[in-house]
Amino acid sequence: MVRVAASVSDLSGLGLLTWVYPPGLVDRVVAACGRSEQRKRLLPARLVVYFVLGLAQFSPAPYLEVMRHLVAGLRGLGLLGDWRVPAKSSLFRARQRLGSAPLQVLFAATAKPMATESTPGAFWRGLRLLAVDGTCWDVADTEANQAAFGRPGSGRGTGRSAFVQVRMAALVEVGSHAVLDAELAGCRTGEVTLVGRLPRSCGPDSQRSR
Description:
Layout: H1 15-20, H2 23-32, H3 45-57, H4 63-76, H5 88-98, H6 101-110, E1 123-124, E2 127-139, H7 143-149, E3 164-173, E4 179-186, H8 191-195, E5 206-209
Parallel strand pairs: 2-5
Antiparallel strand pairs: 1-2, 2-3, 3-4
């Protein structure tokens, strides 16, 4: 299994992200999604992809802290030259330009089974063991998030929760805990509905469990 760094300071090594998501693959995905730069930018799309991945891995570390360590790591790997960390507002705009499509395509390209037949607990009678699981996340209380995802009902008579929530269902390889597929939707979409979309990623050698 891949060891995930325990703190944001470990981003200075950056070997994990660039091993799982090599720069060449990131560049191809960015181009395929039409996010390649038409002019030289302070925040090129490849860097923004790694930045978003770093934010997800080291949440809730602050934007600028993640970017500073990300830049240090990329320089250490020879993937970034002389460069200064921009203002936080520039990072917000860069994320908006990138959008979600490159991250979705990158996930689909890399979310593959990792276990072999010698991995303990990974197979049963020749079938790869898979499981599904679901969870809900609180997300930023913005009008855009509320419109997209909604709020769960409240048991206190106010009619709605204080937090906007996203529901996720994931397909996971039992032996490695690798996530093979995931579906996200608003909190009022049932988990069973999301799970029903995941068999598309079950290979012919798979046995599903819950």
